[in-house]
Amino acid sequence: MKILGIETSCDETAASVVEDGVKILSNVVVSQIDIFAEYGGVIPEVAARSHLEAALPVVNKALTDAGCTWDDIDAIAVTHAPGLLGSLLIGTLTARTLAILHNKPLYAVHHLKSHVYANWLSIPDRPTFPLLALVVSGGHTQILYMPAHNQFEIIGTTRDDAVGECFDKVAKILGLPYPGGPSIAKAAAEGDPNKYKLPHPKIEGLDFSFSGLKTAVLRAVQKELGLPISHPSHDLKNHLSQRQVADFAASFQKTAVEILTEKMQMALERYPDAKSVVVAGGVSANKILREGFERFSAFFPDASLSGDNGAMVAAACYFEIQSGVQPVDPYSLNIYPRISIEN
Ligand SMILES: Nc1ncnc2c1ncn2[C@@H]1O[C@H](COP(=O)(O)OP(=O)(O)OP(=O)(O)O)[C@@H](O)[C@H]1O
Ligand SMILES: [Mg+2]
Questions:
Q1: What lines the ligand 1 site, CB under 6 Å?
Q2: Is 327 in a helix, a strand, or coil?
Q3: Cis bond before residue 130 (omega within 30° of 0)
Q4: pTM over 0.90, yes/no
Q5: Are 68 and 196 in the same domain?
Q6: pLDDT tens, position by position, 140-194
Q7: Is 227 inside a domain boundary?
Q8: How many structural domains is the chain composed of?
């Protein structure tokens, strides 16, 4: 079964053809990072307009790269939530129109579910159920318990910032370029992870909190520079040496990874029947996180599939179909992204 997956939830316009949920036939990702690096973050209106320009060329390239015509495609899968509203609207409208035009069944797929299913792609052995999934992305930090395909229970979640967001904000304080995750990782490679002691949040259970860690870095930088806490955060980078930046990046990265590792350890103690641990989302590309999770023999997606892409949407859709999920009506307004508490 060949599924075309379309993803536009944030600042990547992506499409992919995946066979039977595991074999990638094509994977096209057009990133808007270059546009937003200049601003230090995503501007939703600009992202939506960029998706509008890129959506159809990206879909066409995904078909061409896969050596497919529309006749070969069995279904279309599209991210419907969560994400930036304008961006999601362009993706869902594109998918609805293509489904009507080419008479294909249409599936609306949840973005975090897709991140988890990146772990079924390009990996020889597959996770076994029940499993625990750590989703670490720009907008989310969650631990999920999955007893079987397409069954998810959120057992831990962040009460404030996501860990990816924290990487991005700490990078800003340190004057490192957007997106912050890869910049922090690069700078940290030259730094001493034990130079600055940063606190672990005192959140009981499996929930997370990352806003305090971000503020702790801010205060530690101000203290290191001998500046008052009223000193504006955007100016601190002008006073930091390259060595200080590297040491702060390494100390922050180590602390963030320790927090994630401690919570996963706790989750495994609470869910002793879990047979696999999988990690998903943009932050799963982080090398130190991968090293920290070696003790759990964790599954990680190929680094090229940890960020947003269409292949993971197609994979998630395949396993939804196997679990009996029915297509949505492309004429219905129900698949439009809606703002809900679960987003
Ligand atoms: N090597 C890395 N180390 C740490 N963080 C990273 C790395 N590479 C990317 N990231 C972070 O991953 C995040 C982007 O991940 P992703 O694209 O999955 O998030 P998103 O799609 O914006 O959010 P969500 O999936 O929650 O909707 C950014 O915060 C980025 O800084
Ligand atoms: Mg994402």
A1: 9-10, 82-83, 111, 115, 137-140, 164-165, 167-168, 179-182, 185, 281-283, 285-286, 307-308
A2: coil
A3: yes
A4: yes
A5: no
A6: 999 999 999 999 999 999 999 999 999 999 999 999 998 999 999 999 999 999 9
A7: yes
A8: 2
